[in-house]
Amino acid sequence: MKKLYLLRHAKAAAAAVGDADRERPLTERGQRAARALARWMAEKRLEPELILCSSATRTRQTLALILPSFARARQVLYEDALYLADARGLLARLRQVPASVASVLLVGHNPGLEELAAQLAGGSRRLGDGLPTGALVVFELAADWDEAGDKAARFVGLVTPKELGRERD
Fold first, then answer.
1. For residues 34 and 156, is the Cβ–Cβ distance under 8 A?
2. In this predicted model, what pLDDT tens digit does every residue of 132-156 receive, in sequence order?
3. β-strand partners of 3
4. Cα-atom radius of gyration of the chain, to the nearest Å?
């Protein structure tokens, strides 16, 4: 059984006039949320074998705060194509993962990440309110990555910063 973790970057600063969206950093609230998620992931012993991360500043910073929660070193790939990719593009990337990889963490953006999660969850009510910043969705796949899709995925759970009780608006 393969494991797929979809992580939307934590809360980022609004883009200032003239600033590139790709360079938006995490806010302090986003940093707190990412650290809370890192603690939760360590407690649950989530250990993705491969990490695919958008090259945007906010996704890189989110991942940097989470990486220490993993007991072992991971293969991390920062990919420009994941920046604001749609669900179809994200699924196409996942289908390129070698069959030998048991688990993947994909760190990305909405709306593509939320659309992919909803597609894989088959309309799970738990995703009905969308995918907030800093949220992690967990799936199990009963097939190899090249067959990833809604027929092969089983929704396991969703964790949000508010549910962790360490991040407040």
1. no
2. 999 999 999 999 999 988 778 999 9
3. 103, 140
4. 15
Half-sphere exposure of 108 (CA within 13 A, CB side): 31
* Alpha-carbon dihedral 93, 119, 169, 33, rounded to 10 degrees: -40
Which residue is listed with tokens 């890189």?
60
User: 102: closest CA among 157, 50, 37, 160?
Assistant: 50
Tokens for 156, please give them. Answer: 């396991």
| Residue 79 near residue 52, CB atoms below 8 Å | yes
Element (H, E) at 118: helix 112-121
CA distances from 112 to 21, 25, 33, 118, 167 (A): 16, 20, 21, 10, 24
Residue 124: both structure tokens together: 């799970």
Q: What CA–CA distance (Å, rounded) separates 6 from 24?
A: 20
**Residue-range domains of the chain with CATH:** 2-12+22-164 (3.40.50.1240)
Tokens of 36: 């809370």
Handedness of CA 84, 86, 91, 96 (dihedral sign): negative
- The candidate with the shortest Cα–Cα distance to 6, out of 96, 132, 124, is 132
- Taking only the tens place, the pLDDT of each residue in 33-83 is 999 999 999 999 999 999 999 999 999 999 999 999 998 878 999 999 999
